[in-house]
């Protein structure tokens, strides 16, 4: 099919590249000239494993092109996909100004029937607004609107798209349904055909539920710490139950990213506007923020005095591994809290340094984890990059001033950390003594070795 994708952020770019790779003829449009120039040179504008290869392949095979001109690009398209951003307003509701601008522009340039599909995450009712914005510009020219929200994750976006578990197609006519079925046919996925409002709601419900799962396991982790249980084993046990499922039961410092924080807020706002106040999701948000603060408490607890003047090495800035996306990353909350308490922070991330420093230019940076941890009083893990999982603990110990590691992502094994002589605190896991083979629990101050060193 001939497809025009408007917006080349994460969603637009990955969708456009994947649609072209499964055989559709795709043109991607963005009003950012610099992005278009770069993409035309087959250079990826986001860090996403596997993206650049597919970009190069499909441009070379003339399946994929890029343009700044919406009018020319939609002319021959059968399907126009809207994939622009929907950032949060002050009150948390979704800001639709980019959607409105694109819808009106499409309306102005519509010359023949097309299905105009919203892929961006938008509140229930937006599909009807999009229809109105297009219609007021194009008059009698026929078109259909549809909703096809995106479920990909950053960092595994190509795989998620190529092997999508399902797609929800929110439509008003049989013709639009057929167009979207044809678009998705090569993905060979489960298609749920429904009305536009239901499709729009499905996206918010899915993200809010995933966020709830994370906050739920974080609360279980907090209770595990009080009662000496291990949240990773609890999660494993729960996860084998197919009614629960193992995914998204990773306790840590709470969710970040461009979507969960913004979409939970927009969902709450949608409820308020509709006259039904959601009760669970606001608590999910509260638990999520408290999880950041709890990590700072753990760092403070590692020192008998205050954090004043302590050199803290922060490993990981991106909101999760395999992306350079810093939007709502836990590091943005945690680092200022540490600085506020008088700590000196040296930060390192394998790919997000540039983006992170645009947001936090005041933070001292290192070019490698080895440089960041040099003479550190404590090492703090904020993102579970593979590079950090593979750290040689003996090398790490030889570089730091104090062997204190506070792990916000449960990357290391507490028993091994104890054996290596680290003060090790993580999320929702037992603290171990280092004496003897009986891994008896000790108080919250971590490994016995370090306590001896302190005394
Ligand atoms: N980032 C993600 O992993 C996911 C995002 N979503 C949703 O998809 C939507 C897009 O998200 P991102 O790709 O992250 O957004 P983004 O903000 O990174 O990218 C949006 C792009 O649209 C372009 N744009 C804005 N106005 C335009 C116009 N009038 N004409 C042409 N281009 C225009 C911008 O220049 C930018 O390149 C959001 O609603 C988001 O909630 C859904 C699933 C996953
Ligand atoms: O709407 C969106 O934009 C997307 O939001 C999330 O995708 P993404 O934000 O890319 O990343 P996730 O893998 O979901 O991780 C989100 C956050 O939750 C955290 N997380 C995830 C899983 C877990 O078990 N524990 C946990 O703390 C991650 O560290 C990260 O900060 C959803 O997973 C996608 O399905 C959705 O399409």
List keywords for this structure.
about 450 residues, alpha/beta, Rossmann fold, 6-stranded parallel β-sheet, 14 strands, about 15% strand, elongated, disordered C terminus, binds 1,4-dihydronicotinamide adenine dinucleotide, binds uridine-5'-diphosphate-glucuronic acid
Structural summary, described in words:
With 455 residues, the protein is of the alpha/beta class. The protein folds into 2 domains: 2-194, Rossmann fold; 203-455, 3-Layer(aba) Sandwich (Rossmann fold), CATH 3.40.50.720. Helices cover 45% and strands 13% of the residues. The protein contains 19 helices and 14 strands. It has helices at 10-21, 33-40, 51-60, 70-74, 97-109, 126-138, 157-162, 174-184, 196-227, 231-239, 260-274, 280-301, 330-340, 353-359, 369-373, 386-389, 393-399, 414-419, 448-454; strands at 2-6, 25-29, 64-67, 79-82, 115-118, 144-147, 166-170, 190-194, 311-315, 344-348, 364-365, 378-381, 404-407, 423-425. The strands form 3 sheets. A 6-stranded parallel beta sheet has the order 3-2-1-4-5-6, with helices on both faces. It has a 6-stranded parallel beta sheet with strand order 11-10-9-12-13-14. Strand 13, helix 18 and strand 14 (423-425) form a beta-alpha-beta unit. The termini are far apart. Mean pLDDT is 93; it is low at 433-455. Residues 121, 150-154, 207, 210, 214, 248-250, 252, 255-260, 319-320 line the site of uridine-5'-diphosphate-glucuronic acid (UGA). Pathway: Nucleotide-sugar biosynthesis; UDP-alpha-D-glucuronate biosynthesis; UDP-alpha-D-glucuronate from UDP-alpha-D-glucose: step 1/1. NAD(+) binds at residues 30, 35, 86, 121, 154, 262, 327. The active site is at residue 259. Residues 313-414 form the UDP-glucose/GDP-mannose dehydrogenase C-terminal domain. Belongs to the UDP-glucose/GDP-mannose dehydrogenase family.
């Amino acid at each position: 099919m001939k497809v025009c994708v408007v917006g080349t952020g994460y969603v637009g770019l990955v969708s456009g590249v994947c649609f072209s790779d499964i055989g559709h003829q795709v043109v991607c449009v963005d009003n950012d000239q610099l992005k278009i120039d770069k993409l035309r040179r087959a250079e990826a504008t986001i860090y996403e494993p596997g993206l650049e290869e597919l970009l190069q392949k499909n441009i070379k095979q003339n399946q994929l092109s890029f343009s700044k001109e919406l009018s020319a690009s939609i002319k021959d398209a059968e399907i126009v996909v809207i994939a622009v951003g929907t950032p949060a307003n002050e009150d948390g509701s979704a800001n639709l100004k980019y959607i409105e601008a694109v819808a009106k522009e499409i309306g102005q340039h519509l010359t023949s029937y097309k299905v105009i599909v919203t892929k961006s995450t938008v509140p229930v009712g937006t599909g009807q607004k999009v229809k109105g914005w297009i219609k007021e510009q194009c008059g009698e020219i026929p078109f259909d609107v549809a909703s096809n929200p995106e479920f990909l994750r950053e960092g595994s976006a190509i795989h998620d798209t190529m092997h999508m578990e399902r797609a929800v197609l929110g439509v008003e006519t049989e013709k639009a349904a057929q167009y979207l079925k044809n678009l998705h046919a090569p993905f060979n996925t489960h298609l749920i055909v429904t009305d536009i409002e239901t499709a729009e709601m499905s996206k918010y419900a899915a993200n809010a539920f995933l966020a709830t799962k994370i906050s739920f396991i974080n609360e279980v982790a907090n209770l595990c710490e009080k009662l000496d249980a291990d949240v990773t084993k609890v999660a494993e046990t729960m996860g084998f139950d197919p009614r629960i499922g193992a995914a998204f039961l990773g306790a840590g410092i709470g969710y970040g990213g461009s979507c969960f924080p913004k979409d939970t807020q927009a969902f709450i706002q949608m409820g308020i506007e509709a006259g039904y106040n959601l009760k669970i999701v606001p608590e999910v948000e509260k638990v999520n923020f408290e999880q950041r603060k709890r990590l700072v408490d753990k760092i403070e607890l590692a020192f008998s005095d205050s954090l004043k003047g302590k050199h803290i090495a922060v490993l990981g800035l991106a909101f999760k591994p395999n992306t350079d996306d810093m939007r709502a990353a836990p590091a943005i909350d945690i680092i200022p809290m540490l600085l506020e308490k008088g700590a000196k922070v040296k930060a390192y991330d394998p790919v997000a340094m540039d983006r992170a420093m645009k947001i936090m230019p005041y933070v001292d940076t290192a070019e490698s984890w080895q440089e960041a941890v040099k003479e550190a009083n404590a090492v703090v893990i904020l993102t579970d990059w593979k590079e950090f999982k593979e750290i040689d603990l003996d090398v790490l110990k030889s570089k730091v001033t104090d062997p204190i590691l506070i792990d916000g992502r449960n990357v290391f094994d507490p028993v091994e950390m104890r054996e290596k002589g680290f003060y090790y605190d993580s999320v929702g896991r037992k603290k171990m003594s280092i004496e003897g083979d009986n891994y008896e629990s000790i108080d919250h101050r971590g490994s016995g070795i370090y306590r001896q060193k302190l005394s």
